[in-house]
Write a structure and sequence with these properties.
The protein is mainly α and 113 residues long. It has a domain of 79 residues: Orthogonal Bundle (Arc Repressor Mutant, subunit A). The protein contains 5 helices and 2 strands, in the order H-H-H-E-E-H-H. The protein has a two-stranded antiparallel ribbon. The longest helix has 21 residues. It starts with 15 loop residues before the first helix and ends in a 7-residue tail after the last helix.
Length: 113
């Protein structure tokens, strides 16, 4: 996965993996909700995610077709959803857990316990 796919806005409690699928489908150009259903996302979920993405300023609807807003801030959307910084927090936690495991395996004390 590239950095954009791992952005905080696409995390749990954010737009999630379905929002990510729709966002990346819209990167290819404007789409109707029916066309976005071909991503495998359920119709109701498509409409719900498009509404959320529209409220966040990520997409705009014109004549029944949705397109991405150029220059829209994914960081701003993540902040609005409360998911900004969650990936960095998870990576720090994983690093601490790896260090604690190494310390345990080597029989030494670890500051993270």
């Amino acid at each position: 996965m590239n950095e954009l796919e791992l952005h905080d806005v696409f995390r749990y409690r954010g737009l999630g993996f379905t929002g990510r699928a729709l966002y990346f489908a819209l990167m290819d150009g404007p789409r109707t909700p029916r066309e976005l259903e071909k991503t495998g996302v359920h119709r109701r979920t498509v409409f719900r995610k498009l509404k959320t993405m529209s409220q966040l300023g990520l997409v705009v609807a014109e004549a029944g077709r949705y397109s991405l807003v150029q220059g829209a801030s994914l960081d701003g959307a993540a902040r609005a959803l409360g998911t900004f910084g969650t990936r960095a927090k998870q990576l720090r936690r994983y690093a601490m857990e790896r260090e604690a495991y190494r310390a345990w395996k080597e029989g030494r004390a670890c500051a993270y316990q």
